[in-house]
Amino acid sequence: MTTHRPCTLAVHAGNHADPATGAVAPPIHLATTFRHGPAGERIAGYEYQREGDPTNDRLREALVALEGGATALTFASGMAAMTTALESLPAGSRVLFPDDCYSGLRMLFNEFLPERGLVVETVDMADLDAVRAACATPLAMLWIETPSNPLLKVCDIAALADIGHAAGALAVVDNTFATPLLQRPLALGADIVMHSTTKYFGGHSDVLGGALVFARDDGFANKVAHRLHVTGAVLAPFSAWLILRGCRSLGARMAMHCANARKLAEFLATHPAVERVNWPGLPTHPGHAVAAKQMRDFGAMLSVELRGGREAALAVAGRLRIFTNATSLGGCESLVEHRASVEGPNPRSPQNLLRVSVGLEDGDDLIADFRQALG
Ligand SMILES: *Cc1c(COP(=O)(O)O)cnc(C)c1O
Questions:
Q1: Under the phi-then-psi rule, with left for phi > 0, alpha for psi from -120 to 50, and beta for the rest, what region is 143?
Q2: pLDDT by residue for the chain (375 residues), tens digit each?
Q3: Ligand 1 centre from 167 Cα, in Å?
Q4: Span(s) in the chain for CATH 3.40.640.10
Q5: CATH code reported for the domain at 6-245
Q6: Residues where N6-(pyridoxal phosphate)lysine occurs (predicted)?
C-alpha cells in the first residue's frame, strides 16, 4: 500500500477483507486470550490482549502506511503514548521540549519526568539558533509540536531533526494537529511520530486513543513496545475499531476542515474586533513559509486574539451558537475554548485568546456565527 497516495491509504490500509467471512468492514476481536499450543506456541500470532490483538494490528498497519514508518504502537490515549515513549529513555537523559505545547505534555515534563530522572528543558523551536545553542550539551530527545497548541507556532521539522541528530538525539513530532494527510514528519527526517488519535483520526469526539509511529523497527521501538506491553496502557479493541473507522474518512474530513478554517481565518483577520488570528495559512503568520514548505494544507486549528482582553474573549465565547464551548478538537462539530480559563492556576495562554477547532458545518454558517458573536 505504501506506493499509494494518502487518501487511498486512509481508506484501505489495514482493511483486508476478513478471510473467514469476506466481511468488508473489519471484525472486532474482543478476546483477551488466544489458544496456544501445549508448550505455549502461538497459533495465529496472538497470546494475550495486552500484548496485541487483531483489531489493534489493523490500526497499526494503517498508521505505518499513512506516516511512512516501519512499525507503530497504539495506546489508551495520547498521553499514554507520550509517557511510555519518554519513560523508555534511560535516567539522566536530557530532553528538549517546545515552549508552546499541549498542556498535558507540560504537566508531564514539569511534574512527573524529573522524578523519573529525566532532565527537562524548554526552548522556542521556531528559533533554530536557540535550539542549536540548547543542543550544545548532549541530548537524548528533541520533542517537536507543529503547529503548536494553542498559539499555532510552526517550526521547521527537517532543520530541527538535523540539529537534533547532530547532538545524538531522537527527533519526535506530535503530529496530532496536522495528521499525516497534511504533514509527514518521518519523510522530513524525524524518528518518531506521536498522535492523539482521540482527535482527527477518531474524528467524532467519541473515542480516546494514542499512537507512536517509528521510522525504524530498532532497539528503541522494541524497548517502548516492551514497556507498553508490561505497563499496560494499551488501546481496547473496540476503541481501535472506532479509530480505524474514523481513519477511513480522514482524507475527506481534512479537506473540508482545512477549507472551512481558511474561510473563517480570512474573515476573522479582517474584522475590527479582532487583534490577531493565529493560523499558519495566513501569509502574515510568522511560520507561513515553513508551513507552506512542509504541509500540504494548513490545518483546521486556529486561535483568535480579541481586542478588549479577557472580557471581550469571554463575551464572544458566550455568544457563539454553532461553536460549542468545550475542550479537545478534531471532531465534526466546531469547538471554541477560552484556554486561559482551563489551564489551571498559572495560565500561559493570553487572556484575550480563544482557541477554535473548525468543524465540518457549512463554512458560511461558521462565519455568520462569529459575525453575530463579535457584534
Ligand atoms: C489531545 C492532545 C494530546 C493528548 O492526547 P489524549 O488523547 O488527550 O491523551 C497530545 N497532543 C496534542 C497536540 C493534543 O491535542
A1: beta
A2: 457 899 999 999 999 988 889 999 999 999 999 999 999 999 999 999 999 999 999 999 999 999 999 999 999 999 999 999 999 999 999 999 999 999 999 999 999 999 999 999 999 999 999 999 999 999 999 999 999 999 999 999 999 999 999 999 999 999 999 999 999 999 999 999 999 999 999 999 999 999 999 999 999 999 999 999 999 999 999 999 999 999 999 999 999 999 999 999 999 999 999 999 999 999 999 999 999 999 999 999 999 999 999 999 999 999 999 999 999 999 999 999 999 999 878 888 999 999 999 999 999 999 999 999 999
A3: 27
A4: 6-245
A5: 3.40.640.10
A6: 199
Joined grid coordinates for residue 214:
517509528
Distance 44 CA to ligand 1 centre (A): 33
Residue pair 295/283 in contact by the 8 Å Cβ criterion: no
Q: Quickly list H helices, 197-337.
A: 219-231, 237-248, 250-269, 288-294, 309-319
Burial class (CB in 10 A: 0-12, 13-18, 19+), 47: middle
CA of 138 to the centre of ligand 1 (A): 28
pTM score: 0.97
Q: Which residues are catalytic?
A: 50, 102, 174, 199
Distances 71 to 4, 109, 192, 216 between C-alpha atoms, Å: 18, 26, 10, 7
Residue list, ligand 1 pocket, CB within 6 Å = 77-79, 102, 104, 149, 174, 176-177, 196, 198-199, 208, 210
Q: According to CATH, where is 3.90.1150.10 located in the chain?
A: 250-374
Radius of gyration of the chain (CA): 21
Cα 336 to Cα 318: distance, rounded to the nearest angstrom = 10
Question: CB–CB of 80/210 below 8 Å?
Answer: yes
Q: Residue 368 and residue 345: Cα distance in Å, rounded?
A: 34
Q: What are the angstrom distances between the C-alpha of 135 and each of 28, 97, 116, 161?
A: 45, 12, 21, 11
The domain made up of 250-374 has a fold known as Aspartate Aminotransferase, domain 1 (3.90.1150)
Q: What share of the chain is helix, strand, coil (3-state, %, to 5)?
A: 40, 15, 45
User: Using CA atoms, how far apart are residues 294 and 188, in angstroms rounded to an integer?
Assistant: 8
